[in-house]
Amino acid sequence: MKHLLLILGMLITGITSAQIVDQFNFTGTVNGTNGWANHSGTLNQFQTSTGSLTYPGLPSSLGNKVVYVPGNGEDLNKALSITSDSAYYSIILNVSSDTALTLASSSTGDNFFGFAQTASPAGVTIFGGQLRIRKGTVAGTFQLAIVNTGAASLTPIFSVNLPINTPVFIVVKVKRATNPVQASLWINPTLGLAVETAPTLTSTLGTGTFTAFGSIYLRQAGNATAGTGNIQVDEIRASNLWTAVTPSSCATSSNLTITNCGPYTLNGTTYSSTGTYTQVLANANIAGCDSTINLNLTVNNPSVNNMTVSNCGPYTLNGITYFTSGTYTQVISNGNAVGCDSTINLNLSVVSSITYYADADGDGYGNPAVTQLGCSLPVGYVTNSDDCDDNNNMLGLPTTWYVDADNDGFGSATATTMVACTQPMGYVANSSDCDDANAAVNPNGTEIANNGIDEDCSGADLVITPSAL
Question: Tell me, what's the pLDDT at 121?
């Protein structure tokens, strides 16, 4: 489970670092909207079309899609800020009809999407990671190719036939720090992986350099019967991270049931008590794509047991034998009733013999004057020496007695006490008298009102006012 959470954290990090270029969450003209600028061709030919393109496993699409119209020739670009030596872009691509695509016999195809070296309303002329398209060799299909950079006359290797009206997920990587520049194409790669897989096609055809990832572009080419045809593009992503352009389905929810010994930490948050908790891992770039974790947590605690033992000779505890007096600690993994560690702190006294005390009257209290040494309890003996009179089982532990100077049956809490087995003359077993010099004053005394004397030891004299009489 920890490994799954680690991978989940890596994917979420990747998604939030993506520069999402466009989901076309607007209607109408693309030029001048959401950062797109015309750099070639007739203004405002690129329009959005109602409805999004979707691809299984990708986050839910938003807004609309952009459409290519046969015979149109507008080119647009949108600025990027990727400064690394390598960058990726991904799109969902759908070809609604193959009737207006360049013929399958074309060795070059038509360049319709990719990175541009600069971003401006004019002068965008150097393209990298050029995505090219042509008809397939079978009716109702098309083919794709990738060109790293360079002239339109370059002849790349094209893919197998792909069906029209079936959205495909495209990923392109451009590695501009190499010479020649290298471009790679993936068609329908596995989503949600931490690292890129082997590409479908690669290209090192171009002879020029590609110095920067300045923008992403949309390019229409050809005419009404042979060109970029009826293409639809949606969900454009661009980043220097593979995970950012190939995210798995967003708005995920997972349930975790965890039983842990002691506090449990999940994604940097520590929980110390049993309960149900919810974490929402926010996606900063795609609204509605947060990941929710519902944690049902049971926190069990380790146990500690302190033992004080006096033993004749070596002492064995849980298979470990101790030969000398001392303080020892044992930790038993998963040793308590709830499966957590059990710690035993042993304060051990190893002796050669133990003193036992005679208990002749059988009251459980031993006679300090009659003893026997040994390592096992003799019959008729106990381990304490607390008996007041070992011939009388009614007399056990000594009692504290209190002076009763006024002989009213209540002793003084402030006078000298006496500890004895039997009641001494002039002493009682309680200390509840509040005036031991006056026999009329005690807890059973009769209170006389308004005389200034507390006869019943209640804490104050009884006061009755004339109006109450």
Answer: 85
